[in-house]
Amino acid sequence: MVLFNSPEQWQAFDKTHIWHPYTSLRDPLPTYPIVRTEGVYLELANGNRLVDAMSSWWSAIHGYNHPALVDAAAKQLNTMPHVMFGGIAHEPAAELCARLIDITPASLDYVFLADSGSIAVEVAMKMALQYWFSQGETQRRFFLSPRGGYHGDTLDAMSVSDPENGLHHMFASVLPKQLFADKPSIAFDEPWQDEALNSIKQQLATHSDQIAAVILEPIVQGVGAMNFYHPTYLQKLRHLCDENSVLLIFDEIATGFGRTGKLFAAEHSNVEPDIMCVGKALTGGMMTLAATLTNHQVADTISNGPIPNFMHGPTFMGNPLACACANASIELLINQDWQSEANRIENKLRLGLSPLSDHDAVKAVRTLGAIGVVEMRHSVDVAKAQAFFVDKGVWIRPFGTLIYVMPPYIISDDQLNQISDAISRYVLQTTC
């Protein structure tokens, strides 16, 4: 059965019946029909190609259609695309978990596979709660998080994201109530001041017997703020959590796999969490997959508790096809000089974007690893900005006051210049 006889038909159907992320059905943001991907390019239905500065929301770190990833997917597809993970084991999952244990902080020895970043966060929170429930401390049911964070769009993940300036303030009355501290205030490259910990220190001192865990994004707070903060913050926070007998959860879903110039952002501080979430770039953007890792203390406590089973099991947990893609992506990453590429991207973005700091409409410009951010003083009109960027041959999706990019690691210097030039031209035609 042929549903659509022309590209115009399916595009018209899309506009009238499909609900896209963070948009309205009544007055939707424009969508741009993509028909093909290759390298760093998205090809539009009209044949024009766009340099993807977003890596499909941080995930396509190797670019699109990389032969190693396509080959891994094809081989697994012909062998075993999916089986349930309940009561079944398979080699792609075992290989992936072994790889993750090898490359993540040394104390993280146990892996729970999930099917999205939000679910990995939910799993981490359930682990922390069950850890304390297993010890009879059922009053430890709250989480403490710095403001400015973003952890996903499911209910518990929303509850620990920024309560006012994030994506979910309209749900405040129905979300689980959590505790919040001030946003980390010392920038990545500024002199450290201990006063930056006063707020979170006070919350821990006041509520430590009620807190299951502190959860935060290490070094880079993502779309909640695009805030790059000082590595010492994590070092001091680790000590505070230990002093107050509170677990520490790192959400590395956006920052993992080289994005900040370290394989995982926690390495900027040489700090190990009790629980860590990874996702997005895990499969190189080929499939949806995430994971939650934890240490012996958490795993043993849960497994020796009155309810020793960890009660979570997504239908597509441990999907063999996704695991095969993740194995190929991790091998591809660690067998190349990814750190030099991240440093190159950082230097080029800094060179191209830093002059915008002097523009009246710009609040700040930040770069770290393969991330560049131009923070405007006022909210960006997404529809107008995207139309402008598409006209300049680049794909950038602003959010709030932020024009941010996180390109694939294979991007060339010329393509980085094209991105920086497009952002500069947009800002220069903007007035406060």
Question: Short summary of the structure?
Answer:
By secondary structure, the protein is an alpha/beta fold. It contains 13 helices and 16 strands.
Q: What is the class of the largest domain in the CATH system?
A: Alpha Beta
CATH fold topology of the largest domain: Aspartate Aminotransferase, domain 2
Order of helices and strands: HEEEHHHEHEHEHEEEHEEEHHHEEHEEH
Can you tell me the CATH architecture of the largest domain?
3-Layer(aba) Sandwich
Number of domains in the coordinates?
A: 2
User: What's the overall geometry?
Assistant: globular
Description:
β8 (220-221) and β9 (227-228) form a beta hairpin. α3 (67-79) runs antiparallel to α10, α4 packs parallel to α10 (320-334) and α11 runs parallel beside α13. The protein has helices spanning 7-17, 55-58, 67-79, 91-103, 117-133, 155-159, 198-207, 231-243, 296-303, 320-334, 338-353, 382-391, 413-428, and strands spanning 34-38, 41-44, 49-52, 110-114, 142-146, 179-181, 211-216, 220-221, 227-228, 247-251, 275-278, 290-294, 362-368, 371-376, 394-395, 402-405. The protein contains 13 helices and 16 strands. It folds into 2 domains: 32-65 and 337-428, Alpha-Beta Complex (Aspartate Aminotransferase, domain 1); 70-334, Type I PLP-dependent aspartate aminotransferase-like (Major domain) (Aspartate Aminotransferase, domain 2), CATH 3.40.640. The strands form 4 sheets. The chain has a 7-stranded mixed β-sheet, with helices on both faces. It starts with 6 loop residues before the first helix and ends with a helix. The mean pLDDT is 96. It is α/β, with parallel strands linked by helices and 432 residues long.
